[in-house]
Amino acid sequence: PIPCVPWQSQTSGHSFDALISDMAPDTSGNKAFDSYRSYELCTFAITAARKVVKPERGFLIVKYFQGVEFDELQKQFLQTFRTVRILRPQATRKASKECYFIGAGFKDF
Question: Catalytic residues, which ones?
Fold first, then answer.
């Protein structure tokens, strides 16, 4: 299911400088399934950012649990943003699959 976005009806398109998504799926213990659900949330955040973030200087940050969809998510970010960075904070536990994608400046505006 697509997450509910109550603020969407209250915004007048492209009024935010940034969208920061710390969304994470409820983990099931199945790493492949959890990674895919994390990927789905990230793609939802890209779609939402296109609607509400300022096109020229706005940016998006999403948390992603790494899995087989990593390359596809990276491709989507590279197709969508002028600048893309992928970060894994030093404070992240070594066993964690958590990383962050940062995209700045939409390409197609």
Answer: 63
